[in-house]
Amino acid sequence: MDYLNLVPVTGVIVNVERGEDCCSQMLTLHTAGGIVNFIVDTDTAVLENRQLRAGMRVAAFYDSTVAVPLIFPPRYQAAVVTSVGRNQQIMLAYFDENLLSQNGDLQLNVGRNTVIRTLNGQSYSCSVGDHILLVYYTAATRSIPPQTTPERIVVFC
Length: 157
Prior knowledge:
By secondary structure, this protein is mainly beta. The chain has strands at 6-18, 25-31, 34-40, 45-46, 57-63, 75-83, 89-95, 107-108, 115-118, 131-137, 147-148, 152-156.
């Protein structure tokens, strides 16, 4: 899977129900743009293996190259789902060797307390540059580019 094709939708889970079979679920998210449904199944990576429940703020990522049914509310197949803290922001992007995002929107300053893991939750001790990263942060400078010291980074190897 080309992780750069993933598009995030952030919202609060308002409903979790069984999907078409016992191994899938349908998440209903309340987002700034309205209601969006996501199918979560065995192919979906749920970071930190968190139990998804109503009231939880999450970001669900779908592959923008996959066809979706033209229904309302929209229904996407979730590729990745992660919980997002109240004041937390996320960014999924390729970061170069200088930890600048490919689009120049964010510069990372990795700190001692930054937790770095792989997609499957394993510790990651190499350089995070030249990788696709999912970055969790709460504040960024107003400089150009904005800079942040992330709380957590997930490396997509």
